[in-house]
Task: structure prediction
Amino acid sequence: MRKYFGTDGIRKVANTELTPEFALKLAKASAYVLAKNEEHIPTILIGRDTRISGELLETAMTAGFLSYGANVKILGEIPTPAVAYLTRKLNADAGVVISASHNSFEFNGIKYFSNKGTKIPDSVEEEIEGVLDSEKIDNLTAEHTKIGRYEINHELEDEYVKFFENLFKDKLNAKNTREFKVGIDAANGATYKVAEKVFTNLGIKYKIINNNPDGININENCGSTHIEKLKQFVLENNLDLGVAYDGDGDRCLAIDEKGNLIDGDMILAIISDKLKEEGKLQNNTLVATIMSNLGLNKYCLENGMNIKQTKVGDRYVLEEMLNNGYNLGGEQSGHIIFLDYNPTGDGILTSLMLIDAILSKNTSASEVANIITIYPQVLVNAKVASNKKMDYQKDKVITEEIEKLEKQEEIGRIIIRPSGTEPLVRVMIEGKNEKYITQEANRLAKLIESKLS
Result:
């Protein structure tokens, strides 16, 4: 079992749990593991989101990489998928993202991308941990003449913008024949600059909110985890669509012109329909997780598509896609992977694919979303002690209560899942009666809290 890495890198409270001293040592260990088989001087890209602790950890990691002898390109505030894209495009040895994604500002995190633009596998993370906790870490010091160099290169963001221009400019110009207006919620996060550049360059009419980060307002009542503000913004401004990104820009949720949510499962259905129609849905299959809505399964069944479901986590979705030749997959949270273009979730790419699908049908967002029926699904977080997240499986009272609920006709599915990044156990119940499943999910969550806090 990994000691430091969770399902999406390392994520902790910055400067107390995730300290600059730890970040420096981690950089040394990871540079050694990620570049140990290379004979050239390794090059590492570092990007971060807008939280106040980002500069602190960026500086510490840069120092760690340089002291090992690696060169560093500092990208500044930039979305996670941009780091993945640029790491692959520049054939760097690794990319590092300093971000806690959708978490509040006091958290921060560190995750790695390989030179293929994919997150590094569990086995590599375990190897990094092994070096980090060994005596070897103290000897990972470059000779005086081989200390690494760094450069600040924020202009590389423009390469990411060109990626979207090349992919969508001609396509959208041919279709955008009506006054299609989009609302953007940048979550005061990593997309706050680049999203405007992309939409402006593509000629998409837009209004943007939550694009004034101050270091502590990232994800604060905004973005894909707090979709209510975007809903209000869309309705007040008579917009055709609203798109909300999370703090690091790898997720996207949407709001239709009537104020209804279009979640990740619905986006998967809409995009898979278009790809299938164009003959571009590889192996006639989309990939989702066990948390995907029952409605997505029924949509696939009714439309002659296959669906493969994985453990929760975009790394497992990607793994399934790579192993079996699928090109579309994602999560209900809006983390969608279009493997033909980028091997990680990309909020801006997802929003543009959704806009393209709506314009292709020459109809409204709400009409396009009617392709799938979503069943009531309630998710409640139980706050528990960090070292007890897995103990619900051992507690007889909890397991017996779960078994009782599973036998009820009103309950479709129950999924209990410890968070990979926070001291939480997530309780998901699906069924036809939303009021009842909400009541039971809250009751079960309180039971778990009482036993595991």
Summary: The domain at 377-452 is CATH 3.30.310.50 (TATA-Binding Protein).
